[in-house]
Amino acid sequence: MLITYAEIDGFKNLSNISFAPDPKYNIIVGANAQGKTNLLEAMWILSGCKSFRGSKEKDYIALNGCKMKSGIKFRDSIREQKISIEMTRSANSGKIIELNGVKQKGTGSLFDVFKCIAFSPDDEDIVKGSPERRRNFIDMAASQLNPLFVAHINKSNAITNQRNALLKAIMLKEASSDILEAWDRQAAREGALISYMRADYIKKINEISSRLYSAITGGNETMELDYRSNVYRPDDFELPCDEAAVNKYYMRLRELADYDIRTGVTHCGVNRDDVFIRINGVSAKEFGSQGQKKSAALVMKLAQAEIYKKRSKESPVVFLDDVMGELDESRQRFIFDIIKDMQVFVTTPNESSLLPEMRGKLLRMSKGMIVNE
Fold first, then answer.
1. Could you read off the pLDDT of 347-367 as tens digits, one per residue?
2. In sequence order, what are the beta bridge partners of 104?
3. How far apart are CA 50 and CA 56, in angstroms?
4. CA 98 to CA 156: how far, in whole Å?
5. Which of 324, 327, 322 is nearest to 52 (CA)?
6. pTM for the full model?
7. 3-state secondary structure string across 32-85
8. Cβ atoms within 10 Å of 33's Cβ, excluding its own
């Protein structure tokens, strides 16, 4: 997959950006706060994913601006396609999303079209952050293989929100507890499916992450990933996701129903699961050094790219946001060997900090604009 043209204007501090990327390496250079990361982010949102920086949509438009537009042309294994997102501050206009000139109802339709993977300094939070951060990473990565997973995640979240609202109403004597059973049956069906899909993906990413982590540490350290479901045991995932699996999820919800009603919140299910990351047999979150956590997060992202490439027979576009300059030559070369056949966009304040092999189009940025190529 290759981006062949990009045009961006009004996204945060970016102004009148247009360029034809190199099919291999694109080095985006500039001092801090000149728009390097904003350029990656403006292209990233065209994948249908939320900002990898956690930005809210209302912050996409420049503070003194009234409109933003981001668009790319890209080529996959079949044809060239075009995606654009346009937003205004007007309540009447809102957001306009187009795929090949056809307006889309939402960003969900983009998720199965343009595939990219972003690496950023914040990736360390996958290891040291909250369980939600790890769940979100696995859910997004698994959805790249099966976009239908997004619909199940959204439906499960909506059911959980409705269930929590009902629990509060029952607690306040404003609703009957008899209604809860119907919601539990819906939650069980979606929750079982999500649990099994997560377990399957974690099995895949664990195999590759373990191999990559061993390689990046010269065989001196080990890394393992485990899915910690609060409904199922590990051996449950060796069986099919059938009615028995759904019923087990349902029964767990019923067992905790009284406690949930007393507290007004759901205490079991996919919204409470975690991914346990071990380095040398112990918790990376609790006992890992900063370097170990960074390396673990890095190999998980590299494993994500490798899984997608093997499954789709097509490489994702790779965004490296201020990552390579922090690594020594051996670790840069380790990454390079994995992504060398992919289109790559790298941000850095100093291009001389990169490997000599990583040379392509140089985009120098200043005050939100490309000042030379």
1. 988 887 787 888 889 999 999
2. 97
3. 8
4. 27
5. 322
6. 0.85
7. CCCCHHHHHHHHHHHHCCCCCCCCCHHHCECCCCCEEEEEEEEECCCCEEEEEE
8. 11
